[in-house]
C-alpha cells in the first residue's frame, strides 16, 4: 500500500518569498508522484509529476519538485510567491507497477500569501 | 473539449433519500475514476472504470453506493439511503490509460 504525508496543513508566505511544501511518501514499489492544486470551488489541477528519469521536475506556474528516493520525499517549491498561488495543494502517489493508476492523496496544505 | 463535467454541482438532501450524480469525462478517455473528499482531507479513491468495466471498488464504497458507466462514456454514482456521513465532495476524473488524470469540479453533497 502507498501513503502520503504532507507536513503542515497551513503555510503562510509573503508575496515574493519562497514557497516550500513538504511531502513524504511510502510505497512498496517505485512510485509515481504528483502535486495538484485546488482553488476554491474548483477541481484539482495537475502542477507536475514524477514518473521516471530526471528527479527534478518542473511544472506549471513556476513550481518545481525534487524526487529524493533516499528521503522518500517529493517537496514542492516556488522561488517567489504570487498572490495567485493562494490555494490548497495536494501531494499524491500511485504505484508504477500497478495497472489501476489510482491516486492516494495527502491531507493537503493550504497556502496563504501575504501582501 | 471542455474537460470533465459533473452534475449537479451541489446537492442538498435529507437523510434516507437516494441521490445520483453524473460525470461526463473527456471524450475518448478510457479510464474514469470516482474520489470522495471530506472537509480538511485529500481525495480518497472510491472506484474506477476502464471503458464500461468497473475494475476496482474501495472498501469505502459500501453496499449503498453503486456506480455505472454503461456505454464507456458518462458515469453515474448513486447513493441509496443517504446518511449524514455521506456529506462530502464527490470528484470524478478521467484519463487515457496511464496519462494524467483530469478532474471535474466535483459535486458537493450535503445530507441533512
Question: How do the helices and strands line up, and which of them pair or pack?
Answer:
The complex is a heterodimer of chains A (115) and B (112).
Chain A: E1 3-7, E2 10-14, E3 19-26, E4 31-38, E5 44-50, E6 56-58, E7 64-68, E8 73-78, E9 87-95, E10 104-105, E11 109-114
Parallel strand pairs in A: 2-11
Antiparallel strand pairs in A: 1-3, 3-8, 4-5, 4-9, 6-7, 7-8, 9-10, 9-11
Chain B: E1 5-7, E2 10-13, E3 19-24, E4 31-37, E5 44-50, E6 53-57, E7 65-68, E8 75-79, E9 88-95, E10 102-103, E11 107-111
Parallel strand pairs in B: 2-11
Antiparallel strand pairs in B: 1-3, 3-8, 4-5, 4-9, 5-6, 7-8, 9-10, 9-11
So what's the overall shape of chain B?
globular
Instruction: Kindly provide the radius of gyration of chain B, computed on alpha-carbon positions and rounded to a whole number of angstroms.
Output: 13 Å
**What is the mean pLDDT of chain B?**
94
What percentage of the residues of chain A does DSSP assign to strands (E)? over 45%
Low-confidence sequence ranges of chain A:
none
What is the overall pLDDT average of chain A? 92
For the termini of chain A, the CA-CA separation is: 41 Å
Model regions low in confidence, pLDDT < 50 over at least 5 residues of chain B: none
Structural class of chain A: mainly beta
Beta content of chain B comes to: over 45%
**Tally of contiguous helical segments of chain B:** 0
* Helix coverage percent of chain A: under 10%
- Element pattern of chain A in H and E: EEEEEEEEEEE
Backbone structural class of chain B? mainly beta
- What share of residues of chain B is helical? under 10%
What is the approximate shape of chain A? globular
- Computed over alpha carbons, the radius of gyration of chain A is 14 Å
Number of strands of chain B: 11
